[in-house]
Recover the amino acids of this structure.
């Protein structure tokens, strides 16, 4: 079959799309991945001839020069999407959300090509909510998403969120050796997602040096490119055992070694925490229609994570929560065991099966 996959620009959209692309190619399907033009410079594990790029733009209701320019790029992307659909002649078109996917999925629907979208978050995004009424199937990562879609239940399938194939649990000793860390000391992992989070980085760096038992603490901090140089100097004088990265491709090592994680609550991050069963302190990104708060509450209700809302986040509050957990090994173990209530499933294979059975 010929399968066309279109996705938005963020890692939360791209990583599941690439995971599905790899699975479909492995099963012998012909796949074309369509990305926004801004991702052309990204280092993606997909052959260049299997990717197309389209101009994209975010439109607003304001009449100004920037919005006129954006409308021009939106129209270019709209017609470029049509050209791709006509030339590739897909059997199925798959959308992974964001406004960038609207045009291509619309053209596929208009030409009566089978269509399916995947929603990563608990709260459905605007583009997917609009497309849900047109497409043949809607795949969701959380069962809670179904309640807000307003479509026939038989169109909805719970697949989970596809993850990269290299994300698998390693033995802790192997992961410790990778980072050159010591056995017997606790490890906290800090990450703000694929783009990093300056606010999360700053509060963590204020909180951790005051932790009373920091000689038994080891920190892995993935801070993003913007904060790396400044934080490297700050950590040097913080009296902590640390490993600082601007970006870490081998996240399986970090997840396999972490006793606790402090992070945002993007859909991909939540799926990864479920896979690796890591006790978490979640600080959801407060914007983007509170998608991350709804994601985080799934783990909070399950008692696998504590949630601190961004507007309530202070170094003192984070340090208190952090200290309370790290002083209670039984609590951490209880949080790990609480992940057992989530059904383990191969989201990538489930979604690939749904795509293939549409035709």
């Amino acid at each position: 079959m010929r399968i066309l996959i279109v996705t938005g620009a963020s890692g939360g959209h791209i990583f599941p799309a690439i995971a599905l692309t790899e699975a479909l190619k492995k099963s012998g399907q012909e796949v074309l991945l369509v990305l926004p033009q801004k991702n052309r410079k990204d280092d993606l594990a997909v052959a260049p001839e299997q990717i197309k790029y389209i101009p994209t733009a975010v439109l607003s209701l304001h009449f100004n020069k920037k919005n006129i320019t954006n409308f021009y790029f939106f129209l270019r992307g709209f017609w470029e999407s049509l050209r791709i659909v006509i030339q590739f002649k897909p059997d199925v078109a798959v959308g992974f959300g964001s406004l960038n996917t609207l045009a291509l999925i619309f053209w596929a629907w208009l030409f009566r090509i089978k269509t399916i979208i995947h929603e990563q978050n608990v709260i459905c995004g605007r583009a997917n909510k609009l497309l849900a009424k047109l497409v043949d199937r809607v795949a969701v990562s959380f069962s809670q998403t179904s309640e807000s879609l307003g479509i026939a239940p038989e169109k909805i399938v719970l697949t989970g969120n596809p993850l990269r194939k290299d994300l698998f649990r390693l033995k802790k000793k192997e992961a410790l050796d990778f980072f050159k860390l010591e056995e017997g000391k606790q490890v906290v992992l800090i990450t703000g997602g694929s783009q990093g989070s300056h606010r999360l980085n700053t509060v963590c760096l204020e909180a951790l040096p005051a932790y009373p038992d920091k000689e038994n603490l080891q920190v892995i901090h993935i801070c993003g490119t913007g904060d790396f140089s400044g934080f490297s100097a700050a950590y040097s004088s913080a009296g902590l055992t640390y490993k600082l990265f601007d970006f870490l491709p081998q996240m399986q090592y970090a997840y396999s070694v972490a006793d606790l994680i402090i992070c945002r609550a993007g859909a991909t991050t939540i799926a990864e925490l479920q896979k690796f069963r890591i006790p978490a302190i979640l600080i959801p990104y407060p914007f983007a229609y509170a998608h991350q708060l709804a994601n985080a509450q799934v783990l909070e209700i399950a008692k696998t994570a504590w949630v601190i809302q961004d507007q309530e986040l202070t170094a003192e509050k984070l340090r208190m929560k952090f200290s309370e957990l790290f002083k209670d090994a039984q609590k951490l173990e209880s949080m790990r065991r609480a992940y057992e209530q989530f059904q383990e499933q191969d989201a990538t294979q489930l979604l690939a099966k749904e795509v293939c059975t549409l035709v």
